[in-house]
Design a protein that fits this description.
Layout lengths: L20 H8 L12 E4 L6 H8 L4 E6 L2 H13 L7 E5 L7 H4 L11 E7 L4 H5 L26 H7 L2 H10 L6 H11 L5 H11 L2 H4 L7 H11 L2 H15 E11 L2 H13 L3 E3 L9 H6 L7 E7 L4
Parallel strand pairs: 1-2, 1-4, 2-3, 4-5
Antiparallel strand pairs: 5-7, 6-7
This protein binds S-adenosylmethionine.
Length: 317
Amino acid sequence: MDLPKTLLGEIPLYHHESVLTEEVVAYLQPRSSSRERQGGTFLDVTVGGGGHSLVLLQRGAERVVGLDRDPAALRAAQARLAAAGIPDSCLRLWHLNFADFDLQQHGFRDEQGQGIPFDGIVADLGVSSPQLDSPERGFSFRREGPLDMRMDPGADLETAADWVNHRPVEDLIDIFTRYGEERFARRIAHRIEQSRPLFTTTQLAQVVCQAVPPAARRGRIHPATRIFQALRIAVNRELEALETLLAQAPTWLKPGGRLAVISFHSLEDRLVKWAFRTDPRWQVLTPKPVCPSELEQQRNPRARSAKLRVAARRAAL
Ligand SMILES: C[S@@+](CC[C@H](N)C(=O)[O-])C[C@H]1O[C@@H](n2cnc3c(N)ncnc32)[C@H](O)[C@@H]1O
């Protein structure tokens, strides 16, 4: 993506607190003592506001390729990295679903014109704070907005409104059960069907509240939480993208290169754990997931559910 030069005074308003940054740096070793990995080339497949990319570059990485589906995130990352003094030559940003990454097309090239494999890859899955906090994106049931939920607002994908208003009720039951692990999936899906058409986030949240038994309305977690999560995962085909990433990443890495994945959902974490354990191209470096410290959780409550898993690419593919 050709991003316009952003002047310092025009840095877009975008605040996302990066999670587990020290742990990611410790595993990806941008300034390793081994000569081969010194000042290496890294891929940040979920660049967001550029938090992980910036720390990698400040701690010795020579170059970073950053991807995001969300053009607003790319603008923010570009502005933040430029403001931190990162030269353009060290950075390449692409507006891209990481499932569509192509090393030859999007990576840095060597003198022979071949895509240079990476020393490390970081994937910080899920949504960013600005996505959640912008009512017009439709991710949050707490703020009135259109039922959209596409991470890339220009993507040719069904929106959340398309799902709730046009999908058969069986499809809704399926995603609420699988992606939301919602015990009242059936009741909620039927209630939605009876209430069609629904246009806004708060309308949907209200319908969900009406569908669940009164006791479930008084719980610690808002009854719409799991439904919104399920719709977001379905709209953005998040698990399909993650499966592609896990299958392709070994071919984007140097032998010994590492993949660090931060997930926020048990379904994502299960996919990562399974791929690392069963794909012979990976050597697991985190037998148990690494979680944020108490201090980090206190500082940033959104970090609470984060889990980091890391694996290294074995020499032979
Ligand atoms: C948790 S945020 C990343 C924050 C970033 N690590 C930072 O420190 O600022 C997740 C980002 O990943 C992006 N994203 C999620 N799935 C993606 C995919 N399949 N391809 C590209 N970007 C994706 C979202 O748009 C969002 O900006």
